[in-house]
Amino acid sequence: MRQLPKPFATQLSGFSGKLTTWRLTAGAATFGLVIAAGAVAAAGPWDSSGQRTAERDRAASQEALGGADHAGGTPGRAPETPPSAPSVLAGLGAPAGTAPAPTDRALAEVLDPLLKDPALGPERSAVVLDAASGKRVYGKGAGEGLTPASTIKIATGVAALSALGPDHRITTKTLLDPGSSGTPDVVLVGGGDPTLTARKDGRYTDTAASLRTLAADTARSLKSRDIDKVGLKYDTSLYSGPAQHPIGPNENITPVSALMADEGRLDDSSSGPAPRAGDPAAEATKKFADFLSTEGIKTNLSPSDSAKASEGAESRAESLAKVESPPLSSLVERMLTHSDNDIAEALARQTAVAAKEPASFEGAGRAVRAQLRKLDLPLSGAKFADGSGLDRSDRVSAELLAALLDHAADPGRPELRSVVTGLPVAGFTGTLVDRYPKDSPGTGVVRAKTGTLTGVNSLAGTVVDADGRLLLFAFMTTGTTNPQAAQTALDHMASTVANCGCR
Asked: Residue 339 catalytic?
């Protein structure tokens, strides 16, 4: 029998102090609960893609991190210890076997009728696993591949973390190319960090890689070489293939580029739907030119044009400066809590780069699948057309989603833990902030990733039952006609498991 996961800390390379990746903060004294830090909203109008507007149009004003809250505090220092309360996830800190496990028959008695709810549409599947043993305690249509919508981000996170490690950081850098015109060129090289920020302040700016800092450090390096005038180019060659997602231009996702600032958003939001740059690399480069000018470096970049770097520039260029993203564990949490499509596509491509696959939609799909195969996960019928779940041709089974969560909750795989800590907490954070009423037995004890497209609703995560046993679940539906009713039915299933000893 596996030992249940317990709180732990991970030491980041180059990081002073410990960064706890199973941190939980107090959020509901009425229930004596500990919840993940932050608050981001989770509902909103439907848009033309069928995805709710980033599954919440209030997300831009009520933003949050996942359970570990990597983004708070001072860069280079560990986050401050949050307020604490008795653990909501009692099973997580308890020795294996102290809480009784539910039985297959008892769970079937309570879940079978709920799974027949007409609101769930004609295609539905469900799996519940016992976290202590990994044993399936409920399953209906477990291996059937259905459209996962945003729950595919669980697979994206597991693949990226297992391929690169939780401490991996994405680098954005500048190079000095001597050029051939007599004036040297600065080349802004994108490494695939969608969270690179051009903002002076706001959510995430204290820990995100800063384009302003990169400009200041680049200017300092240029001045040390007695250079005060340069050409400016950018390099996005790390990625290949089409930049535009198959759904087309959409406020839920920016064209996928190795270089962008603030996810290509044209407003001041950091999550949720927003107007997007058509050419995020060019937009970022123009902002970088302005920052260089502020630092006393003149550029010949036209306000209406950004010259793409010629091939081979990096091989003949000198390094000037670089900035690094937050650790991958933090990016995974932010992706899952906000259902962030831009981060999801970036992490899928980072997985492709690690696998030496083309960093395209197709190459990323192959890399994610190959990485999950290394983990011996059930991939029958699975298709990874993208990393975000916006593509309706994605296919994932409830069995696979539950197995992914089982791996992430395994104390023998601490590198995957942010997949669990990033899950929204029912009634409190992320895309579940208003999905559960205060008197629901699932409020605060269900934490799960939502998946929402027109006609598609899914929910996958963890729940502690009435006996204190930690369970993992995946509920999937296709062909729903009333999204609110479908979500309510799925939430009722998770709450029923929370309220059930089921022995």
From this structure: yes
